[in-house]
Amino acid sequence: MSEFGESHQYNLASMLKLVSTPRMANTIPVHFGASLIGRLANTELSAAHGLQPLYEAISNSLHAIEDSKRTDGLISVRVFRDDSQGRIKDEHGHFVCRPIKDIQVDDNGVGFTEENLQSFCTADSLYKKKRGGKGIGRILWLKAFERVQVTSVFQNNGKRMRRAFLFRPDDTSPVDEHVVAEAEAKDRLTEIRLQTFREPFKDACRHKPETIADRIIRHCLLQFLKDGCPTIVLHDEDAETAIDLNRRQKEGRVDEIDTDSLVVGPHALTVHTMRARTSEQDSHRLHLCANGYEVEAINLERRLPHLPDKLPDEHGGQGSRLAAYVTGKLLDEKVNQERTGFNLPRESQPDMLEPSADEIVGAVCTHLGKKIEPLLNAEKEKSRVRIRRFITERRPMYRPLLNELDSFLSELAPLEDEEEIDLRLNTIARKIEIRAEDDFKDLRDAARQQVEAAFEKYWRTINNAAQVRLSQYVVRRRAVLHALRKLMDVTDEGKYQREAEIHDLIFPMGKSSDDVTPERWNLWVIDERLAFHDHLASDKKLKSIEAASSDSGDEPDLIVFNQPGAFADSSRLPHESVVIIEFKRPMREIRKGDELPHEQTQRYMKRIREGTVADKKGRPITVTATTRFYSYLLCDLTPALREVLTDRGFKPTPDGSGFFWHLAEADAKRFEYFEYISFTKLLDDSEKRNQALFHRLGIVDSPTV
């Protein structure tokens, strides 16, 4: 006997009775038991749904008040914080939100009557089936909390009774310390205290009081909209004052709820649409509901790409955001047991008897799109103008896509960053090309006239895509030349760039043509023909060059090996030519006794002829006396260097910006060619070769594009 009077013990397993055919006289009754621990293990609840136990408790309270038929219903939600570390301030001086320890939900409904207790102690109870109850709400309590303390004052045979018990994850006595006694309280009151929030739910639900308030409102909005909705108040230890949720949801709405019917296949749905203040809602959302409560929320901005961040406010406010709540018998029937999702097909069904969630969302979005069609059209036009301006002013290589832009505008509208737009346009260009190829493939067996028309369309589209790729290549060339001009300038410290910077721009240092893709080569700056070679090594010791092994430790800046050509009978024939390129620092002065650049490359040539040569696969090949050697020496032609070269027999180029000399020994068939090219000549010649392309693309005066 306890202080409350007669004690009653309930065992969850003992409440589960076997349902069977009428017993024969000699049958023995057998009770079908259930494991609470096993039930918990088979119940799914992600950390993102850590507040679901709170929603279940509030739902129970709403039902209890509805059953009491009272008009002064009151629900109090109390959030108790972990104060083990005290209050901590962030870098801005604001208090950091403390972790949640316990949550308590109080209501003045009918309370834990005998019927409610029996349902509570019955696994998968069908007591609330007509209300959409799944019978596992209290299971979710123990999924996220260590235990639950229940205290309830209820009416029984004209008397006020008080019931208290502890609910815990235990197969022997899950409902423990249960006592019932006559109560002195004048009114009914039920307190459900969810104790000791578990990880990872505790960390994932470290929300501000205002966030918890808005989450409750969002989940229970359709309940708030009902006539006679109880007053719901949030008391949070981290909040300065209590939060009246009824008032907060009314103040958060810009307009009244607009209710429309919608049919998806044979299923009738209802769409409740409203506009919420931006301070209360951070994005446009579509809410799929079951039995009057939110289950899933979908971001509408991804479904309606031309939807602006904020809907304009007719009264000059900060704008609002769209919120649509969808209800229907189909959703009520298909919600999962945890009420965190729907058991709907992942893919659409031909008969639409059971549409997928995506089909439902798509139908609702189409409905919403029609409701705000003028606004979406205006935003679509803004996006079109913005993207067209970006193409015409910043990325002219995409001009051929302008006529195709509308069909891809929804992909581009949400993007703000120019680099993202650039990447997406590049992807779209390839999509158009693939689509054109597919269209032509589908029509290839059509009549001759149809094929000719399809081919003309295909060629026109492919031509546009090819223009985009060519334009990208030309724009890149312009950028490379602009970078080269910058490297020739004097730095802020009054010095010239090291030759390594220029070298790396032309071809990455320490790499070979097998290491980097042709897109990274800029050999065209020197000579367009250098792109066609068998092997190239950049700033590598001769003995480490795959195409020509040597014992030398010298490092020519660039060495290119060429084979006779595509018509050679064997890939093991001697190299037809070898090109060596040397870079020198801009405005580098020649001192007395310095080795001249062409003397350095002559030494390279000699060692290449003397060394043992192997191709990149390790097969022996020979560099013979007939192999022609070319040397390009890139440097500034200072007065001192001009004088030395003239004395050595070098001849000036016709434009006076370079010097050349060659050795041709007819008997030995030995050929060596040396050309000094000033950086100014290198840049000017390259720009002249590409000038027509730059002019055609309209970027002559826009080197920074």
Describe this structure in words.
This protein is α+β, with helices and mostly antiparallel strands and 705 residues long. It is built from 18 helices and 22 strands. The strands form four sheets. The chain has an eight-stranded mixed β-sheet with strand order 5-4-3-6-2-1-7-8. The longest helix is centred in the middle third of the chain and has 41 residues, at 448-488. Mean pLDDT is 79; it is low at 1-24, 540-553 and 563-572.
Question: What's the structural blueprint in terms of helices and strands?
Answer:
Blueprint: H1 36-41, H2 52-68, E1 74-81, E2 100-107, H3 114-120, H4 137-144, E3 145-156, E4 159-167, E5 175-182, E6 189-197, H5 201-204, H6 209-224, E7 231-236, E8 243-244, H7 245-251, E9 258-264, E10 267-277, E11 285-290, E12 293-299, H8 300-303, E13 320-327, H9 329-334, H10 357-371, H11 373-393, H12 409-412, H13 418-442, H14 448-488, H15 499-506, E14 535-538, E15 558-562, E16 577-583, H16 597-610, E17 613-614, E18 620-621, E19 628-634, H17 639-647, E20 651-652, E21 658-665, E22 670-677, H18 679-697
Parallel strand pairs: 1-7, 11-13, 16-19, 19-22
Antiparallel strand pairs: 1-2, 2-6, 3-4, 3-6, 4-5, 7-8, 9-10, 10-13, 11-12, 14-15, 15-16, 17-18, 20-21, 21-22
Helix pairs in contact: 2-4, 6-7, 13-14, 14-18
